[in-house]
Amino acid sequence: MERGFLEIVVTGGGVAMPIKGALVRVFVREYNEEGIYDGIETEKRIKEGRYTQSLTTDADGKTLRMTIDTPNTDVSYEENSEISPFTVCDVYVEKEGYFDALFFGVQIFPREESILPVNLEPYTQKLIDNNTVKSIYTGKYSMVYFIPKPSVGGKRENAISAEEPASAQNNRIKPFIAEEVYVPESITVHLGDPSEETENVTLPFQEYIKNVASSEIYPTWPESAIRANIYAQISIALNRVYTEWYVSQGYPFQITNSTAYDQAFVNGRNIYGNIERIVDEIFNIYIRRMGFEEPLFATYCDGQNTTCEGMTQWGSFELAREGYTPIGILRYYYGENIELVSTDNIRGIESTYGGVPLSIGYVGDDVAIIQRQLNRIGDDYPAIPLIVHTNGVFGSDTDAAVRVFQDIFNLTVDGVVGKATWYKISIVYVSVKKLAELTSEGQRSDFHQADTSVLLSQGSEGEDVYILQHLLEYISIFYQSVQPAEADGIFGPQTYQSLVSFQKSFGLPETGTTTEDTWNSLYSVYESIIGVVLPLEEGQSFPGTLQQGDSGESVRLLQKYLNAIAQYYGDIPRLDEDGIFGSQTRNAIYEFQRLYLFEDTGIVDSITWYRIVELYNYIQRNQNR
After folding, report:
1. Residue 141 and residue 145: Cα distance in Å, rounded?
2. What is the pLDDT of residues 226-275, one digit of tens each?
3. Is-contact 471 453, C-beta < 8 A?
4. What is the pTM of this model?
5. Residue 494, Cα to own-chain centre: how many angstroms?
6. What is the chain's alpha carbon radius of gyration, rounded to the nearest angstrom?
């Protein structure tokens, strides 16, 4: 008997908002004398409060790490073992203001850290009325997930042959390909065969790959085998994105979780610490044939229950034990004319890794970028210490902030900003900024004045379309079944697909047009999220645009908020709270926008106002703890 580890990470809105104080109950499964588990036992234990351990999330949304007895490691090295190579737990998570979540089948492997990412959805009466069944487990309303054991391969009957370049079949079947290979900011997964009527889930690309790897292989395997399989999984996903395989056929998703067509993905499953670290390091590296642009559709299977022309997963395990490197394993199966290449074209990321690891003593613009991004992330993850001087000098305070960030996000804690840490900081920074900006823009005074009687459909343009897109974009952050929509004021195919996914998720007719019921539901869901995410104090609503030359109580409040922020952020100058918007106040706004927003205009629009208010309220709450 060995031991494994379990940690639960609870957020709302992806990685943007850690949820503190969530109650987590863990139930290690009990089996009968025949070795058979009956799920009813967990239901009884939840109702009766008979849990193995009860935990509460900290300010970073994380629980303490549990230690759990597991089978021995060598069980996971046997293809036909009659003993399960992992221990199974069920996890129940609840937090006031959010739907509770129940996970059946969380798997704990020996010596490995199992991480269960839990993204709670805000409590929405409309969802209850239309689409959610009352939980038999808690008496409330639950989001329930069932996690099957790792597939260790599946037969991909309709996949592109590993022996034929993707372009040959792609061009024969359809002419649609992207202009260049890129890593998407997010990917939409269809939970079933392509033509099957079922749910779509949208999530960050890296989180998708971590899920696939945790669903397809064992984390106890040699690292060379794990890396080889992850390279193949990345290549399959990027091939589907690059060739626009499903989108060009009219489907509102980029890949499926059917192993007959693509690769396994289990919505709500746990992932493993070593797999997470590897994916964060190599998520933008893929396989291609020499002389070709597109990522290889790197077919793989388990090699026993199913066979294929590409890599066998148990075969990769054996080759790794013989000392093969990841590229050696891949060339063994796909041929000597393949190579591993990387792309810096990562959608949603403002700057790319410069290739030089940063640590104490380094000076330059890249250091300043990391310092500012870490300070912004620290607003949502308060364990990250403040870097007082964001001057581009990598000192002890930057080292401390990097180390805490690495610990929170399960990176190697060494204080060095290499490729994995650089991109993780960039991705989390974009996520927290995006959430703040969507919240701020949504709170502007004229936001709720859309004409709900006007029927918007494909081809419509204007302010009402922009409002629709903003609502959908914001809701999609908290509800994975709702696809995002870029807010550009033009009702195109993406907006149509996003609207239909919202209507389907909330029990409305899937018309793709804005009926009055659709508008009412959009506002109901949006306002329920705002009530949980950004509770404002009285008098903090946006007063209208403020700029140099203005004066009054709103300007005085602005100066008060900036002075409170300046106590912790040394780059922002202190101000006289005189209610006069002069050059000093304008300069303070310039500096704030330079640190936290995309544009430094010196003018306080709704985004700037609410970002200042949000940060001020955060400081006040932490001072009163």
Report:
1. 13
2. 999 999 999 999 999 999 999 999 899 999 999 989 999 999 999 999 99
3. no
4. 0.86
5. 20
6. 25
Q: Give the containing element (helix H, strand E) for 202.
A: strand 200-204
Residue 172, classified by CB atoms within 10 Å of its CB into exposed (0-12), middle (13-18) or buried (19+), is exposed
Q: Is 151:215 a contact under the CB 8 Å cutoff?
A: yes
Residue 46 has pLDDT above 80, yes or no: no
- The 3-class SS string of 503-523 reads HHHCCCCCCCCCCHHHHHHHH
Estimate to the nearest angstrom the gap between the alpha carbon of 4 and the chain centroid.
25
Residue 263 to residue 156: CA distance in whole angstroms: 8
Residues 6+ apart with CB under 8 A from 322: none
pLDDT of 586: 95
Q: Determine the pLDDT at residue 619.
A: 78
Residue of 49, 82, 55 whose CA lies nearest to 68: 55
Both tokens of residue 40? 């009813």
The string of pLDDT tens digits covering residues 83-132 is 899 999 999 999 988 888 999 999 999 999 999 999 998 876 544 444 44
**Closest Cα to residue 275, out of 202, 327, 353, 212?**
212
The end-to-end CA distance of the chain, in Å, is 43
Task: Give the chain's domains with CATH numbers.
Answer: 2-145 (2.60.40.1120), 166-342 (no CATH), 365-442 (1.10.101), 463-533 (no CATH), 553-623 (no CATH)
Q: How far apart are CA 361 and CA 383, in angstroms?
A: 24
- Residue 623: count of CB within 10 angstroms of its CB: 9
3-state SS class at 311: strand
pLDDT tens figures, 573-614: 899 999 999 999 999 999 898 877 767 889 998 778 888 887
- pLDDT over 70 for what percent of the chain? 86
Q: What residues form DSSP beta bridges with 12?
A: 17
Which residues partner with 69 through β-bridges?
3
Could you tell me the two tokens for 284? 């933008």
Q: How far apart are CA 42 and CA 247, in angstroms?
A: 41
Among residues 614, 439, 434, the alpha carbon closest in space to that of 536 is found at 614
Cβ atoms of 298 and 326 closer than 8 Å: no
Listed in sequence order, the residues at least 6 apart from 317 whose beta carbon sits closer than 8 Å to its beta carbon are 77, 221, 222, 225
Tell me: the pLDDT tens digits for 415-443? 999 999 999 999 999 888 888 777 665 55
d(CA 305, CA 153): 8
The fraction of the chain above a pLDDT of 90, given in percent, is 59
Residue 247 DSSP class: G
SS in 3 state form for 108-147? ECCCCEEEEEEECCECCHHHHHHHCCECCCCCCEEEEEEC
Q: Which pLDDT does position 625 carry in this prediction?
A: 45
Burial class of residue 78 in the structure, from the number of CB atoms within 10 Å of its CB (0-12 exposed, 13-18 middle, 19+ buried): exposed
Residue 68 structure tokens = 């759990």
Closest CA to 202 of 487, 471, 475, 523: 475
d(CA 291, CA 300): 22
Q: Which two tokens stand for residue 354?
A: 């410069």
Q: Which helix (H) or strand (E) holds 342?
A: strand 338-342
The per-residue pLDDT for 567 is 85
CA 568 to chain centre: 29
